[in-house]
Records
---
Amino acid sequence: MSHGQVISAELREWITTQLAAGHSVPSLRASMQAAGWHDAAADAALAEVERQAMGATESTKAMPGPDLSNSPLYIDAGDRRVHVLQTMRNPRVVVFGDLLSDEECEALISAARQRLARSLTVETQTGGEALNVDRTSDGMFFERGENPLVARIEKRIATLLRWPLEFGEGLQILRYAPGAQYRPHYDYFDPAEPGTPIILRRGGQRVGTLVMYLHEPEQGGGTTFPDVGLEVAPKRGTAVFFSYERPDPATRTLHGGAPVLAGEKWVATKWLREREFK
């Protein structure tokens, strides 16, 4: 129950029937909102019924992520032992400690510094890239495996998250000066936008994000998840991973980079796709 609205058997049956007929979750949400359902109640009903409707299909769908079956404190990532600092199930969030060494953080910053430019965002209207007022960082991309340092880190990530190295986009380095931020957004590509089919040709949907902190600001700059009231502090060498099994707000993966209040923040971001990214 949410806002006094009961998720009845009849509602579950209606949602199940509509999903089976091929209607999308966003279209069902819009219909429920038009009928007077509050956002929270509609999302709860859709999430519940979709999990039941998908059943075994969802439970067997391959997704990136660490092996947390035995609640480990540490995970062997091949060439480094990584700490598990925090986990959350919904949304699926894992905070890692000691993923990168201080030397690796400095080396990434040094290699990226001369190639920084105003950060762009993927433009789902056209399939290209564009400046976005919501994103006020400077950044650059390394090609996958561009140098030994990048290749080593990418291999470590692939081992840690049990996802093929080839399914990852190139490593992005971002610098946030005082006042810079990235307002809350989703990393998946909106299926309803006209440019999305063009974007998906390169490797399918994004299904996971890993944000690694290279340099700590003096104040501010946390990674926020507004839907669940979570903020991850940008401590050097640590990282936050989150996954999203479908491109829908019900995954609760709305996130942002809070404004840097003092100092600089540097991060490295790795986005993971459904298949090989070309």
---
Amino acid sequence: MPKTSARLLSMLSLLQARRDWPGALLAERLNVSPRTVRRDVDRLRELGYPIATIKGPDGGYRLDAGSELPPLLFDDDQAVALAVALQIATTSGAGIEEAAMRALHTVRQVLPSRLRRRIDTLRVTAVESPASRADPRVDGEALLALGAAVHAREILRFDYADAPRRAEPHHLVTWHGRWYLVAWDLDRADWRTFRADRITPRTPNGPRFTPRELPAPDVAAFVASRFRGSSESGDWPCRGEVVLGLPAVTVSHYVRDGVVEGLGPDRCRLVLGSWSWAGLAASIGRFDADIEVVGPPELRAAFAVLARRYAQAAR
């Protein structure tokens, strides 16, 4: 029979691995008697672990949530995953960076050397653009309040840019390093994406609501369409087609949201979208190749405008 301390750790690991454990199966896995299992459960309870007894013909045990956080056990893969997730959390902009860093330090201190070496090989460095560096971080408590309202399906009352708003919160999402709330705006009767760092929740929340169907296949498609400037089709407001004097394999490396079709060894068709016709023409012009505009006329006109501007700049 293993020593009591080692046996308690083994029992705790088993209780964390699945929801319910029949007493007889637990005794079999630990190679002890059911009486010893009962005594060990009592010892874990004295240490603060909320272990509930399951009534029934076989009886059993379950590790429940308690009022305080007791020590936890992780296997190797879980420990590495937790350390990596904490590193990512320090760059999330969710207002938990300091807490995540302290938690990462705590986890690293107790890791065996073989696991510490594994996580030390991965160092995550957040590189922010100058435009986003000054953006305020999201308050952690506000983020939890938004998530709770989404989960409970309760109407959210909040201040947004110092103006009172009411909305049915549907999803909490991240987009390019920022947090957004996707919600149905009750005052404007339309879908909106609110920046979470500009939201100040009011209490209490309003009544529960029945979720509406998003005007998109999923929340990812909806958010992408909003930032493209079109909520109806989920497409860019300006989309054009050209023929480039480059191989399709070369162009496809630099096109994320377009369609590239090969027309030969040194020609390809490119269909691309953008916020504006001038922006689309400039985006296509970055390819060092001859360009033949297929359409629409707005794209051809945008190339003409840019040509005059570039010619004047060259003079």
